[in-house]
């Protein structure tokens, strides 16, 4: 993720229809493990584990939504399609070892991490709204 970080975070938030209280969560959600540190608000931001913590939260929230609304099988495929549909590839901070295309598993993890970030930032209701906007439900 290079360029104006604030602008990119705003664009992703707009795609989600979500006004973030603290954009640090969305920034972390878009950072892949091992990605290059990014300059944001005068500081270099780096998360050695990338978005794994938020992806874990998002993963469980998605599972809760699936259980609650009996979502069809094929979640990972759906997450990849959602990632591609919303054109999120240019917003992800990639690991330098990842050349070219973002893998399907990385795309799915990023969607889970974004849901986790919204949950951490605003709670369950905004996370549910994001899942609906992402067409999970």
Class derived from helix and strand content? mainly alpha
CATH topology: Ribonuclease iii, N-terminal Endonuclease Domain, Chain A
Percent helix = 55-70%
Q: CATH superfamily, please?
A: Ribonuclease III domain
User: Which CATH-level-2 architecture?
Assistant: Orthogonal Bundle
Total domains: 1
Report the top-level CATH class: Mainly Alpha
Q: How many distinct beta strands? A: 2
Instruction: Categorize the overall geometry.
Output: globular
Nearest-integer average pLDDT: 82
Question: Care to describe what's here?
Answer:
The protein has 137 residues and is mainly alpha-helical. It has a single domain, classed as Ribonuclease III domain (Ribonuclease iii, N-terminal Endonuclease Domain, Chain A), CATH 1.10.1520.10. 55% of the residues lie in helices and 4% in strands. Helix 4 packs across helix 5. The longest helix is centred in the C-terminal third of the chain and has 19 residues. The termini are far apart. This is RNase III domain-containing protein.
In short:
It comes from Plectosphaerella plurivora. This protein has 137 residues and is mainly alpha-helical.
Chain-wise SSE layout:
Elements: H1 5-16, H2 24-29, E1 38-40, E2 43-45, H3 52-69, H4 75-85, H5 104-122, H6 124-133
Antiparallel strand pairs: 1-2
Keywords:
137 residues, mainly alpha, Ribonuclease iii, N-terminal Endonuclease Domain, Chain A, two-stranded antiparallel sheet, 6 helices, ribonuclease III activity
């Amino acid at each position: 993720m290079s360029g104006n970080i604030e602008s990119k975070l705003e664009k992703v938030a707009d795609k989600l229809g979500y006004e973030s209280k603290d954009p640090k969560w969305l920034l972390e959600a878009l950072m892949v493990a091992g990605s290059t540190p990014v300059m944001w608000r005068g500081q270099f931001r780096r998360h050695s584990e990338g978005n794994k913590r938020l992806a874990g939260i998002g993963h469980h929230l998605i599972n809760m939504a699936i259980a609650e609304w009996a979502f069809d099988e094929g979640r990972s495929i759906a997450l990849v399609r959602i990632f591609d549909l919303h054109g999120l590839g240019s917003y992800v901070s990639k690991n330098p070892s990842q050349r070219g295309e973002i893998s399907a598993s990385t795309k799915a993890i990023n969607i889970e991490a974004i849901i986790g970030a919204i949950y951490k930032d605003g709670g369950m209701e905004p996370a549910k709204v994001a899942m609906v906007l992402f067409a999970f439900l």
